[in-house]
């Protein structure tokens, strides 16, 4: 006790603003349930496992810790199993509400001799008692950041409900016996509140649901609100189950539902609920989600344990993160940087005072958690009637990447939510953050193993050429459906589909035929010649047609191929291509290497000499003046956007009308160097573009990031060279990047199930130890039938020698 009293100065009573960690070690995945429990530093309020607490003592000198230990209690097996009523995890009414029950125990530990003192105890100093009580009563940072109640978004009142126009067409809807007006569907029916039509709902990604007749009806009529029949009861339970198929496209509230139903003769008080509401169906689909059927055709999967076979716990729609990180840590660069070449001790010693907010530390923690095998062991359960006896199960618990997710999402607001995200966007964000984190020592930067150069060659009708260069980490490929190898089967399928539709019959899942497109045809599309119309040639001083081709200036250690399965149809409606990609085990892309400027080729001249000033295009200026803008302002807008066009100049005008120098005469400095927002330049650089390219794009787009991105990929007329200098030799410019032969072997893929990248489910498959392994969140096992043809992201490793 005297030792504790002598160290009271190192004990703090936490304040409301303090971040308290008490559920997970900050440098490992140890928890209070682990064998040694968890030690909470009573000065910094960081938590450490039993093997790491002395590291913190050596680094900080803080000797007093609250030791928290949780022991599983015996619970009756006949405890009723509650069906979840909330789409949530870790909250009352949510999933996993039948988890084991644990009993907490506490004691005070003083290092370095691990002297223990019981808690609670009246003999403890008051300061210690108050500090411990505050820690126990507080909500840990882990739970706060998890946002455990990730329930579906709160329903909003529809903007159409209050002024909804209903047709006086004499439609009277009977209280039962409904049927879709377009097919024989008698369930999943929706009543349109404008014209009283009854149509079936959307087809789900797994083939269940309706035939899309309700949404097709909206696309034709634009009648916005519909209510699901069979979900309405006397208490208007369905008031929050409206579905708007256009600008809201979500469940919304109709405060006038009773009135709108009465228009069609519906007495809601007599209706009985026969169908699941939208929220209930969403819950039912989550509860009944069968990952074996989706990804492994219902086959039994043999579980795997040991180093490199550790699963990641789903934190709530975090499968995009889990699938991506499993593949990333199977690459040599990330494995070496954060596991083989960096121990947890080194990572902790070099971390700032709070290692929970340090990306390097959390990547090291995650790497050791995934690759060491420490946490890849069969889970245990207590035997019936004897809490002291345990039995191994055929699954592992996995590790929760909470701290890593918190750090990597700190500079990206979307990834900090519990919503589903695009695995591609996450991968690019991860690579960007890792590159920035290792900027001081690029030789240790594992993101470089994915980086490569892309060179575009433009040749106009004059025969002269221009070369544009950019860097990227993924190769995004269009899917040429016209290259499908099973066209005969597709034609027969379309005939069968038309016949069944005419008879009002549904296709069975085994009758559906999808296009099969070879991956090499997708790669050929990337480098195939493309015509650019209205290209302004500085050699001809006129618009003409140019031919654009693209190639790679270097072949990275790891090539990531992104399949553009999500496309935009007319009206900017997103659609997922229902297609299979035939992917071989190895590919050779040697023919895709860019040759750079060749002997005898002549570069297109710059649009203006280096010392010349850029003059405003009078056509652009004239059109803007005709709209009522001042002539001087119009000149500045045209110059500031490099004469890219009227729309770009107008956007610049609207954004700069209140500039203090808008009325000042045009000087040479402004003509040559308009102001560019540095933060927007940094944003484009984070996308993988060069700074000079980013500046030119922002200048040409009036500072609009989205348009600047489009400008980079589709340079407007008059812009020929986006780089500071045209490349004459790709190998010279990209000498610092990894390079080698163009032969690659497939090592992993991230596949996606769902109608968009922001919903559904992501799963990783990785080729390890001579076999394919499936990583589905915390489930890891031998893959008997890997869905190679269903990949969204493909990871290839370069073969040298």
From TrEMBL:
The active site is at residues 319, 761. Residues 615-656, 675-715 form the UBA domain. InterPro entries: Papain-like_cys_pep_sf, Peptidase_C19_UCH, Ub_carboxyl-term_hydrolase, UBA, UBA-like_sf, Ubiquitinyl_hydrolase, UBP13_Znf-UBP_var, USP. One of its GO terms (biological process) is protein deubiquitination. It catalyses: Thiol-dependent hydrolysis of ester, thioester, amide, peptide and isopeptide bonds formed by the C-terminal Gly of ubiquitin (a 76-residue protein attached to proteins as an intracellular targeting signal). Keywords: Hydrolase, Metal-binding, Protease, Repeat, Thiol protease, Ubl conjugation pathway, Zinc, Zinc-finger. This is Ubiquitin carboxyl-terminal hydrolase. It comes from Sesamum alatum.
